[in-house]
C-alpha cells in the first residue's frame, strides 16, 4: 500500500514569492478601484450640493429683463388701476 501511495505522491514546490506578489497586486488594484469609486461619489455629491445651494439662492429671481421701474410704468399709457388688474 505504501509503495502505491509513493507512486502517486506529487511534491509541489510553490513559488511563494510570485504568489505573494500576485496577491499584493490584486489587493492594490482593488484598493485603487475603491479609491476611484470614492472620488467619483464625492464629486457627484459635491455637484449635487452645488446644485442644491444654487436652487436655494436668489440669483435666478433677480433678472433685470423681468424688472420694471416706476419710470417704465409712468411712460406706458396704462393707468395704475389697469396695471394692478393685469397683475393677477
UniProtKB/TrEMBL annotation:
Superkingdom per UniProt: Eukaryota
Region (Disordered): 1-88
UniProt biased composition (Polar residues): 66-80
InterPro entries: Jlp2/Ccd25 (IPR039730)
Regions of compositional bias (Basic and acidic residues) in chain numbering: 8-32, 40-57
Protein name in UniProt: Uncharacterized protein At5g11500
